[in-house]
């Protein structure tokens, strides 16, 4: 049966022969925020990149179904056209390409239409105002010389312009000061609606103070080991991973580096 939710079933993924994901079962529901937490090395970013089709990651088993299609069998650009978006943890600099030109090209490619320049400028200005981004940013080369906070705001600006139906936010809060964190969270919250679902990947509970999750999942060693409501994130903040799930974060990191 076709569903608008993104449903991940028994997903196993390896990188250069090393097993990273060991049977992920997860649903990103439309109209909801799904939070995925876990220490470094647990496989969170691997899941994000796998869902968007990074060639480095090999799917050994499982599926990810969205709109009745197994997206793992599709090219990355086809996944984007289907309405899936990834906000990178470490956005790349693209010298020579302005933010405006990049976003208009991306919009035309994803929406498979040709928006006029005046219409796009109006749309871009609206979204930049929403995220408190100075309009001069549109003329700068993409991420070149940007601070960490500016890069993350630009990622959320891209999401606001493209208006995806499923957004994967890979540690969008990393490296942000409290003011930038609030602005990015406000941008995400402004997009939330019944026709939009978000998978928010984070280490820390602080982002979830501003983007309220409907469900929280904890990933350890490539598996989801505990799930619950937003109170689960607060428990992690108070007790740490060892106190909530009986795993030591340093042990997980050491295992990932072996």
Structure description:
α3 packs parallel to α5 and α5 runs parallel beside α6. This protein has one domain: P-loop containing nucleotide triphosphate hydrolases (Rossmann fold), CATH 3.40.50.300. It has eight helices and twelve strands. Helix content is 37%, strand content 28%. A six-stranded mixed β-sheet has the order 6-9-10-3-11-12, with helices on both faces. A hairpin with a 2-residue loop joins β4 and β5. The protein has 258 residues and is α/β, with parallel strands linked by helices. The mean pLDDT is 88.
Distance between the termini: 41 Å
Net shape: globular
Q: Main β-sheet: number of strands, strand sense, barrel status?
A: 6 strands, mixed
CATH class group: Alpha Beta
In the CATH hierarchy, the architecture is: 3-Layer(aba) Sandwich
Radius of gyration: 18 Å
Number of helices: 8
SSE sequence, one letter per element: EEEHEEHEEHHEHEHEEEHH
Low-confidence stretches: none
- Widest beta sheet: strand line-up: 6-9-10-3-11-12
Total E-strand runs:
12
Quick structural gist:
With 258 residues, this protein is α/β, with parallel strands linked by helices. It has helices at residues 44-52, 76-82, 99-111, 117-130, 148-162, 178-191, 231-245, 249-257; strands at 6-15, 18-28, 33-37, 57-66, 69-70, 84-87, 94-98, 141-142, 166-170, 197-202, 215-220, 223-228. It has one domain (6-257): 3-Layer(aba) Sandwich (Rossmann fold), CATH 3.40.50.
């Amino acid at each position: 049966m076709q569903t608008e939710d993104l449903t991940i079933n028994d997903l196993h993924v390896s990188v250069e022969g090393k097993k990273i994901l060991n049977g992920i079962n997860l649903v990103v529901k439309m109209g909801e925020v799904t939070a995925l937490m876990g220490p470094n090395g647990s496989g969170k970013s691997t899941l994000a990149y796998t869902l968007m089709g990074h060639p480095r990651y090999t799917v050994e088993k499982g599926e990810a179904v969205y709109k009745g299609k197994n997206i793992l069998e599709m090219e990355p650009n086809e996944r984007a056209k289907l309405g899936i978006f990834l906000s990178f943890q470490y956005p790349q600099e693209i010298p020579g390409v302005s933010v405006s030109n990049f976003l208009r090209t991306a919009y035309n490619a994803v929406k498979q239409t040709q928006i006029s320049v005046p219409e796009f400028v109006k749309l871009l200005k609206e979204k930049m105002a929403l995220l408190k981004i100075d309009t001069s940013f549109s003329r700068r080369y993409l991420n070149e010389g940007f601070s960490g906070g500016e890069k993350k705001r630009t990622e959320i600006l891209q999401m606001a312009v493209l208006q995806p139906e499923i957004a994967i936010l890979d540690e969008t809060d990393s490296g942000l000061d409290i003011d930038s964190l609030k602005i990015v969270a406000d941008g995400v919250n402004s997009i939330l609606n019944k026709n939009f679902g978000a998978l928010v990947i984070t280490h820390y509970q602080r982002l979830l103070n501003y983007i309220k999750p409907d469900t929280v999942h904890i990933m350890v060693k490539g598996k989801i080991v505990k799930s619950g409501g937003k109170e689960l994130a607060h428990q992690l903040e108070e007790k740490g991973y060892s106190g909530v799930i009986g795993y030591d974060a340093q042990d997980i990191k050491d295992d990932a580096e072996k």
